[in-house]
Fold this protein.
Amino acid sequence: MVKPASTTQSFCLTGDDKDDRRRFTKIVPTDRLALLEKQLQLKPGATAILLMFTVEFREAMISACWKYCRACQSGKERRHARGIVKENIAEAVALSMALSEKLDAIWRSGDGAAVDFLARLAHAWPLRDGLPNALLEPDYLLFLRQLERTLRTMDQALPSVAGGPAPHMAFYNLVTELAALGQSFGAWDRVSSSTNEPFFKFAAATMDLLKAIEPILPWTELRLPTDEQLRTRLQDILGAARA
């Protein structure tokens, strides 16, 4: 049984989004964040590079939950079309692949003058795993390849069909963010609706976290699925993405 974060005090919005976001951080149960870390085999305070930014796991999880709760505010009904977005994602994947291949070719060309220009960006991040920079790929290639993986995960998670009411659409967005987050920490290479797969267990634990705080959020309607409903909804998302 999921225990609520609190039964005595409701969390109400003030209209100051920055302050509301700060206060929201304090109501997210730390024990559930710790459970999510354990599922991904992370140490407390773990960070990863998500695109070009260093991401702290707990902060990223709180951010994902906050955006979902805000998108599910009572009475907000919106419909979204995904056709143009899906086309842009596919084009972005192709462009990131092409750019990565071209830059890699320039880097390996042996043309000293050309390589000198790229060298300014080659190792902009701190040393990784203590290895000399000369043994590592340029950072911008790592970024482009992570960008490509993230875009592919997004394309897989988002359905081609038009979105429905805001909570329904918010769930698609939450699933996408969870998939990309787990991928950035090396938890999985693909997302799956199978109950035996790490992604499903991670998504189910996230639902439990949200269920724990839902009773003190009077302004939102999360409409969270049970484990069985979660499996079906993930199947719908992933099936539409592969269709």
